[in-house]
Amino acid sequence: MSSKMQRRTALRRKLHILKTLTNSKSVKKSSIIMDAFLYIYKLKLQVEAIQREYQYLINHIQEVKVEKDGTRYVVRVTCKKGQDLLVSIFEAFEEMNLNVLEARVTCKHFFGMEIIAEAKGQDIDSRILTETILNVIQRPSGNGAIN
């Protein structure tokens, strides 16, 4: 007899927790369970929407920031991952006569890079450097095409 009471008490506690979590106003056990089901389904839809937004951001993020600090340039690049992107950016630096002093790269979810570079000859306008790097990261990669 006591085990039956313990099960009822445990069920009542669990239903109360479900009712509290889902802000259910229902009294009947079946209604509370249905409210919990709908609550979980709405949460699932929200997670899917966040995942879609995340994927969209990862695929469409493209940012280049160039700051000039005396004779040095601090360049931050954030964009979608691409084949040979790192090499292409370093080649662009070389073509512009910039000496890379330090570089930090990440490519877990997207390609991110921070470079500290110095001009070998004359100074370069920050806008030109920004445009050049933007052109590099906007080039189609892969497909065996030579850029």
Verbal overview:
- Helices cover 52% and strands 23% of the residues.
- The chain has four helices and four strands; from the N terminus they run ααββαββα.
- The chain has a four-stranded antiparallel beta sheet with strand order 1-2-4-3.
- Helix 3 packs antiparallel against helix 4.
- 12% of the residues are buried.
Keywords:
147 residues, alpha+beta, HLH_DNA-bd_sf, disordered C terminus, 4 helices, four-stranded antiparallel beta sheet
The beta-strand count equals 4
Tally of helical runs: 4
Mean pLDDT: 88
Reading the helices and strands in chain order gives HHEEHEEH
Strand residue percentage: 15-25%
Low-confidence stretches: 142-147
Alpha-beta content class? alpha+beta
Rounded to the nearest angstrom, the radius of gyration is 28 Å
Overall shape: rod-shaped
Helicity level, as a percent range?
Answer: 40-55%
Strand order of the largest sheet: 1-2-4-3
Largest sheet: 4 strands, antiparallel
Gap between N and C termini:
80 Å
